[in-house]
Amino acid sequence: MAGAPKYRPGLGLSASRRGTEEGPWVKWSLVGAALAFSAVFLVLPLVNVFVQALSKGWGAYEAALADPDSWAAIRLTLVVAGLTVPLNLVFGVAAAWTIAKFDFRGKAVLVTLIDLPFSVSPVVAGLMLVLLFGLQGSLGPWLDAHDIHVLFALPGMVLATVFVTFPFVARELIPVMQATGSEQEQAALTLGASGWQTFWHVTLPSVKWGLLYGLILCNARAMGEFGAVSVVSGHISGLTDTMPLRVETLYQEYAGTGAFAMASLLAVLALLTLALKSWLEWRTQRGYARAERAPVSAPRP
Amino acid sequence: MDEKRFNPLPGFGLTMGYTVLYLGVIVLVPIGALVLKASALTWGQLWELATNGRALAAYRLTFGASLVAALINAGCGALLAWVLTRYEFPGRRWLDALVDFPFALPTAVAGLTLANLFAAQGWLGRFLVPLGIAGAFTPLGVVIALTFVGLPFVVRSLQPVLANLEREVEEAAATLGASRLRTFCAIIAPSLLPTVLTGFALAFARAVGEYGSIVFISGNLPFKTEIAPYLIVIRLEEFDYAGATAIASVLLVLSFVILGLVNALEGWANRWQG
Amino acid sequence: MKAFASWTRDLPRAAAPDGVSRRAWLLRALGLLGAVSVAAGSQPKPVTLLNVSFDTTRELFREFNAAFAKFWAAKNGQTVVIRQSHGGSGKQARAVINGLQADVVTLALAYDIEAIVRLSGAIEADWQGRFPDNSSPYTSTIVFVVRHGNPKGIRDWDDLCRPGVGVITPNPKTSGGARWNYLAAYGYAVKRLGTQAQAREFVTALYANVPILDTGARGASTSFVDRGLGDVLIAWESEALLAVREAGPGVLSLVRPSRSILAEPPVAVVDRVARRRGVTTVARAYLQYLYSDTGQDLAAKHFFRPRSPAVAQRYHAQFPPLNQFTVAEVFGGWAEAHRQHFRQGGVFDTLYRRRE
């Protein structure tokens, strides 16, 4: 996801149409095919989650969500996301500043390394943490001797989530920072502003929408991560089950309704994410003409 | 690319240092742990563990299904992108927003609900299964789940390119008497190809590592519906760390290769579009 | 309070050399603990326990934990909160080996606890003698669940090898229940057909009928019940009875084969963790409580065969006698069974290789 370029909707439609339209027959069959494909892969899964969750009525739905273990899962998910997102935010800003504003040797390598977690299987990410922090691993025995628990506890789950969502903020920020250039910052510095002042008052406002966009993506993935967290969680109900893991636990406890109820909450979160994202796109669309001319993907020196 | 110039902006040392430190702690140290574990094995052992029949079957499924899913996404994604940028129809904006749904929806939920849709009693399965199309617990199920998770890549890569495509060239072709199909094949398709390839590679890379959705929709049967990440989990659960590490190393190396490929493709695409 | 905790921690261990008198000691220690806490005029600090268990005990421990918490509070006024983690037995054992802070483990088979002993040393080697009946407070066996009316006419293990019968069983590499399933089938074949080679042919034919391998026993039941896969589910008797009840009347039926295995799920205190957290006493009392009348009754209620003859008598209609064999008798113990069948390259792996 980190690599997907942003798209500003509606730009193509304003263009002239003369001589470049397909016949209505072609057009509507293409639209039909696209709608059929989206119906199967996008609409039906979404509807299915809610229908399954409410299949035994609203009462059963509420009861499924009232379970203290489910509440604990919701809380834990929020805590994990709440720790992950700021960590990756600070990193993303620092990395984008370095990469977008300066030229140095090895920039391409750095960009590739930042992208790396995106293509590592989450399960492998989890395994690496097990190898590092497990009692059979490199650091595990030492940590255990000092009664510090990383694996099967909050720190391990946060580390796994941070790994998986590592590139999001940086990936979104780099092209935006690059597109805005550094003339304004240089002007501010010339006028006597300090480095921090320049950052807060000049850089940050100009990239805030891109930043927000990266945060939304990062947060969505942090809340929904399953593979990596599953490997390091230990699945203790009420303690280390996040919402996606709780979906699995409930599913295994013959609580199909409960599982889909929890899944529906996650789907609502997904929809909120989409709504926020669309709103952001609408906000940025207006002032985006300048950035649109710049390359959309990460810089290659 | 640029001429060397004096850069007055502050913070290079700080941000560079922090970036490298954080990258090191979060990404490189864990990868180092994996490499360390793998290096405790001899090459022979590593080769044996990473290439036994079951692992080979798992790679075959992982890469085969990812390839098919990425191809479907290249085709259907291009169609979707085209329809979304070129045509006005009721619900277009909704559909456009919904394209990102697979990014936002946790993959475990996706797997659960897709399995539910395609199982024998599911909304789609009840029509498809009698026709012999079993979508749940088969290799086809793996393809379905991977298509879902990779769906936005091609669409989102193509949309800005399609929107920026110069209509004048198409108009000129039409004025010169070229049929619409000919214009598409000779002018539009070639200029889209690099971007489709980028989207394809991204979808492929994402699919190779996918785990959450597959657990629910695949039958997880050795040699048949077992993917490589799942086999790693199995090896872990069998206390077989060497085996897990060997397979993980293969996936890791392939991730590097795919990533390099994506970057090369993007560079190529950027050059192509000037 | 802290000193008090460290004082009680090692009391039963130091004072009780063998299993039987330990129980008496434990009770006396509990009484003492209660007396001391009353004398101190304050409630003992609340404690938490983590019970790492296998897949099909979810319902049992939900109810048992509440019962024990009540018992413990009444006994000495201490609040105890018990947390659960469930999953395939082998997977759970691996988590404990890797540092999951379990105070007690209640797993599907002794081999998994042995693995913890061997690979991490967190449990002491003599664990099996610490509680009665080889530290296995309840037993079970392996039976079949079929769709209502038994359309495929499944009566015994031989029917599972017929072509066209879909058999659902989980993955023996990750699930303890699946190991029992496999060994039950293999043991039946050895007893009926005679030779190991024939038994191998038998399980090969059986596993050729398995369309999916879930990671845990519960996952397999879900595949069979909710997703409608397969014609027969091989399962713990407890899981089978639960599945039949959960599905409602007229959906599933239970079939008991002519011969099956005696499954003995064991329990143990994870000494290292419990000692460090200062909960050894309550952890032991917790497992001991499984042997009490209440514990045995709850086990039976959740379809595990109780050890107590009195409770067994009460539930005899639910657990008809069955011709059972043990792992020791047919396979020469778990270590040997694992070496032969489940380790990488063992018989189970060759079943799938041959199919390819």
Supply the key terms.
heterotrimer, A: 301 residues, mainly alpha, 73% helix, disordered N terminus, disordered C terminus, B: 274 residues, MetI-like fold, 77% helix
Q: What does it look like?
A:
The two termini of chain A are 23 Å apart. Chain A is built from 14 helices and no strands. The model of chain A is unreliable at 1-18 and 295-301 (pLDDT under 50). By secondary structure, chain A is an all-alpha fold. Helices cover 73% and strands 0% of the residues of chain A. In chain A, α8 (168-180) runs antiparallel to α10 (195-224) and α10 (195-224) packs antiparallel against α13. The relative contact order of chain A is 0.16. Chain A has two domains: 21-53; 57-293, MetI-like fold. Chain B is mainly α. Chain B has one domain (42-272): MetI-like fold, CATH 1.10.3720.10. Chain B has helices spanning 12-39, 43-50, 53-86, 92-98, 101-104, 107-118, 125-128, 139-164, 167-175, 180-209, 212-217, 228-237, 241-272. Chain B is globular and about 70 Å long. The longest helix of chain C has 22 residues, at 19-40. Chain C is globular and about 65 Å long. Chain C is 51% helix and 14% strand. The termini of chain C are far apart. The A-C interface holds A 130, 133-137, 140, 144, 147, 149, 151-153, 234-240, 249, 251-254, 256 and C 50, 55, 58-59, 83-87, 95, 97-101, 119-120, 216, 218-219, 221-222, 226, 242, 246, 276.
Largest sheet of chain B: none
Total domain units of chain B: 1
Q: Looking at the chains present, what oligomeric state does this protein adopt? A: heterotrimer
- CATH class call of the largest domain in chain A: Mainly Alpha
- The stretches of 5 or more residues of chain B where confidence is low (pLDDT under 50) are none
- C-alpha end-to-end distance of chain B: 15 Å
Q: Can you tell me the CATH architecture of chain B? A: Orthogonal Bundle
| Global Rg of chain B | 23 Å
CATH level-four homologous superfamily name of the largest domain in chain A: MetI-like
N-to-C SSE string of chain B, H for helix and E for strand = HHHHHHHHHHHHH
Number of strands of chain A: 0
At the third CATH level, what is the topology name of chain B?
MetI-like fold
Largest interface: A-B, 121 and 115 residues
The pLDDT mean of chain A sits at: 85
Global Rg of chain A: 23 Å
Number of individual domains of chain A: 2
CATH architecture of the largest domain in chain A: Orthogonal Bundle
- Helix/strand class of chain A: mainly alpha
CATH superfamily of chain B: MetI-like
Total count of helical runs of at least 4 residues of chain B: 13
